[in-house]
Amino acid sequence: MYHTPAWETVMGLEVHVELSTKTKIFCGCTTAFGGEPNTHCCPICIGMPGVLPSLNKAVVEYATKAGLALNCEITRYNKFDRKNYFYPDLPKAYQISQLYLPICRNGGVEIEAEGGGRKVIGIHEIHMEEDAGKLVHDPATNATMVDYNRCGVPLIEIVSEPDFRSANEVIRYLEKLKAILQYIGVSDCKMQEGSLRADINLSVRPAGSEAFGTRTEMKNMNSFKAIGRAIAGESARQIHLLEHGGAVTQETRRWDDDKNESFAMRSKEDAQDYKYFPEPDLIPIEISEEVIEQTRRSLPELPEAKRRRYVSELGLSEYDAEQITASKVLVALFEQNLAAGCPAKELANWIMGEVMHLLSESGKEPEDIPFDYGSLGALIGMVEKNEITRSTAKKVFKAVFEENCDPVEYVEQHNLKTVTDTGAVKTVIEEVIAANQKSVEEYKSGKEKALQYLIGQSMRALRGKADPQTVTAILKELLG
Amino acid sequence: MMITDELVTYLEALGRIRLPEESRAKAQRDLQEILQYIDTLSELDTEGIEPLSHALPLTNVMREDEVQPSIPPEEVLANAPVRKDNYFLVPRSFE
Question: Can you give the residue range of the structural domain that contains A367?
Fold first, then answer.
């Protein structure tokens, strides 16, 4: 019988995160995103001969914070090393990084495992380094344009253990990482601006096997969707190779999301040899036990602890708690309205429902929430007090989302309050009946559909200001 | 370690340089001598001694995270052999 072996995909991640310090890692130039090309530069970050790097204190503080939040050991005595390679994005022809004594080691992040339960993704190490410049292809000259504004922006590289077995696990880990780093305020983690970029090391092996297969590396993935597709595509490519008597070559590949295919970037002959050596221009870093303890105490409540508290104390579902705590912004939206007295579950339903819906519809991230957080609570408050119907609230929320208007004012201005005076509702319905005698006759002769039509007409005349149950009851009463 | 002719070729590739044919043999000999000289260090017993990463007895030399003015792009690009607007222009470096 023909039998296809089941394959297991094994992955490890290298995640580069730009730290949100005000200045670059080794000079006082701003780290602001964008800016006219080559305007955030100085002799240090463009690698002029004879200049010396000067380490930004905040980089060490942020990296320490990140390490502690990711359950790492902090390397009390750490230092920088020089990684040598020629590429136009690197004006010094070397990158200052950490190889031998990285600032953090042996950490872990808990995620929801594929197939249920929770699992810890090990963090091998975190090191500090400088970002490179930006290369832009210029079709007019068929040459490459270089902008060094980003050159020298501080990065931490978070290297995981090969603990991932599915694309979902990778994405959950990245979401968790993003949430944690945003909570502790060390990075904005905006993937679209490149402040969080992931390299994926991927290999496949027959299910049940302990040995690792030959891996490939896919560079600079910068959206969750692209990551999902890249993992599926690369796993399939390797499995196909192995099932057809081929072998996987260890190489760096570039995922082309438009073509839905990966391409080899460097040929094997072009071996990498970074000739690392200790950075002679920088003094080692010593982090005392006191500083570590102080930093640990300064950390806010982290997503994992929040998630548990939302479930146990506020009664949220596991799923809702996980989704909300995955974003610092959603947590702020949730907690601010909770503090203002909004019921937790109702609030969670709105965030998971309308807020997420409109965000995804408009292609926005939670970070781009365009309305005042308090507006959501005010809206829910009006529903709770029966001032507006649920369907009206959804319409109002759309306006709040699109125009950042005040929901209370909007309801006033558009006269959307629920009509609680049944007399007034009755008057409107009587008019509808008078204007639709044909449907009334049909209903009386037993056509249920006609009633639906009359309800619809009445709701329209009332412009959603009365709930359908009341309208139905009054209609039936009036029609006898 | 032996400095072979292949190794010289490899070092040329890493350094993005090409040695003139007549200096290859000399380069090979010089590199071999440098390595031999450094090898004299191996005669010392360094068992249990922490590698020294810096000659100065200093740690934690750092600056505050305060923005300093950058230099004007005209100065940044002053030595650029080729430029386009305010970008450096270099040979195509994408695959």
Answer: 301-413
